Amino acid sequence: MATYVLVHGAGHGGWSYRKVARLLEAEGHTVYSPTLTGLGDRSHLVSPDVDLNTHITEVANLLFYEDLRDVVLVGHSYGGTVMRGAADRVSDRVGKLVFLDAPDGRSQIEAFPALLKERENSQVIDGVELVLFPSEDLVRFFGVTDPKDIEWTLPRLTPHPWKTLEQPLVLNNAATLEAIPQYRIVSTTSLSLGIHNQDLIAKARAEGRFWEIDSGHDLMISEPEAVAGLLTEIASAAVRTTGGV
Questions:
Q1: What is the pLDDT of residue 242?
Q2: Catalytic: 16?
Q3: If I label 151, which of 11, 88, 90, 125 is the partner at 20 to 30 A Cα–Cα?
Q4: Which residue from 36, 17, 57 is spatially nearest to 158, judged by alpha carbons?
Q5: pTM recorded for the entire structure
């Protein structure tokens, strides 16, 4: 059985993986889906001090204090940046890295340039600049279209601290990090937008470590069975030679 640590994206929380986590746990796997400080059930802890390093430290600490080994570390969207930073610090505890619709960039705004437009609607609350304020339009932007999923997702989204999105990721052990097997699961929507690094996509395809799911960006909410199935496959190191789900 595998151990998964599922890192959520901007404005979300560990709750966003609930469907996927239950499917994996039903198969006997161990699943951790932490919520990063300032978001979700920890939104009351947001402060001007919360930055990208805060979130990276939280995930790295989880792996250390729970004494986790050979972890399948999964990062959705912004969580991909957090995941890379954590794996850079505790690479000996990570067996595989899974980029779940998580484009590459030195910062999240480099990976998702559209976030710069979101900053036009930012608000400073208690000294913290926040973006991605919840709305039905935002939920649909995340690719959640089923009415029941919208009803469940909308009240759980929380504004995201801008500071974490613009801070560049600093790696101290890049070579060791790159040696960890990496897998990429992308949504059809984001793939069509051309936001993913095409060289990395091509490399993943050639290695049989690339899959495309016909879904919007929040594919762990809209297509949990497909995501859980691929995560199970990745954990067992059985990869496909062609993409597509």
A1: 37
A2: no
A3: 125
A4: 36
A5: 0.94
